[in-house]
Amino acid sequence: MVVLILIAQTATCRVLNKIDEISIVETPLHVAAAAGQTEFATKIMMLKPSFARKLNPNGLTSLLLAMHNKNTLLVRKLLHVHKDLVCAQGRGGVNPLHYAAQKGNLLLLAEFLRICHKSIEDVTSQNETALHVALKNDMFHAFQLLVGWLRRAWFKNARFWKAGVLNWPDLDSNTVLHIAASKNQLQASSFNYVFYSKK
Q1: Which among 183, 113, 115, 101 has a CA at the least distance from the CA of 144?
Q2: Are 67 and 107 in contact (CB under 8 A)?
């Protein structure tokens, strides 16, 4: 019986290693995340941590799949094992912070910023920051949270980041202030003004 178990484990390891050699693939971790199988996904993640950064054929990481399925418990468990997943980009350069800003998920936004403050400077393939994404999707509360976090930022070069992120142009040369004005989001425009006037 023990011999059969060892053979099965060896075969499983070989299969997982073969999957790991493929750059874009639907891994067992993707399948578990899509199915909401938190416990199984956690075990796969611990067995094969490299699966966490892999993109499936739709360009999604397992963390983005868990977010898409609103499985916050799995998101937190994946981050507990692999904190740098906050910066892992999927299709279009979207990372979990961008996705949380797009959906207006304030709890995950705050958690992602706490885990990896540098994710605030990540941009999508459209050169958009999480602030751009929040405004373009009419998620003003997410925008407020991000700007408020920038105002309170204490880390090295925080002042540079504040100015850089708020003035960052997307591919159409629009900053967040341009987007706020074009969408007639006066609250966002005035919030941006308040940010700059209280340096």
Answers
A1: 101
A2: no
**How many Å separate Cα 24 from the centre of its chain?**
18
The CA distance from 183 to 49, in Å, is 42
Q: What is the distance between the alpha carbons of residues 9 and 196, in angstroms, rounded to a whole number?
A: 59
- Positive or negative, the CA dihedral 126, 23, 26, 6 is negative
| Residue count of the chain | 199
The two three-digit tokens of residue 70, written as one number: 């609103």
- What pLDDT is recorded for position 61? 94
| Residue at which a domain ends, from 38, 59, 82 | 82
pLDDT tens-digit readout, 51-65: 988 999 999 999 999
Same domain, 137 and 73: no
Dihedral sign for Cα atoms in the order 28, 32, 38, 39 = negative
